[in-house]
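Morning F.,

Quick status update on the modeling queue. The single chain you submitted on Monday has been processed. Sequence for confirmation:
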Amino acid sequence: MALSKMLRLFHTVRHLKAEQLIYRLYYRFAKVYLTERREYGQRPWLCTWSNSGLLPSRMLARGSFEFLGEQGDLKDKDAWNNSHKSKLWLYNLHYLDDLNAVGAESRREEHKNLVNRWIAENPPVMGHGWEPYPLSLRIVNLVKWFSRQNAVEPAWLRSLGLQAQALYKQLEFHILGNHLFANAKALVFAVLFWMGMRRRNG
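Structure tokens below.
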């Protein structure tokens, strides 16, 4: 059994590039430290993202979702990292795709509650939601959603700033491909977001 595991590991590793191996080792042991900045409490965005609602809604009711043909509920804070759900199911939960899904405007209050819960129940760099890929998709979803709000709460902006920091410190060089592209896209959204803030205040 041990020999078969070693052989499988060898055949997996031998196809990786040197930089992928280096970053895998680095991310395995490195800790992510975040710094909160005062400007997170200001509203930066200068335009409104037109929500085309291309994705179907996966929200069945407040705190209830269906992903990959499986339903689940956000009964408490531990549900974000429910050990009985697959990692892919949990990733989908953390993307917060429903913020920009079909009919999103009719679920405005549910979405405010969802964003507030995510922030309150997912402390910085703890749990699946702070891994780089879900960070990437959620940052884009949040920026689009923020742009359509009449008022953006300071806590939302502070959280977005921390999420962008966390992503920047965990770029997926160990995976490359579409993951690294998603990382870059999210950082572009975040940078333009804060550039808009400087233009607004400048």
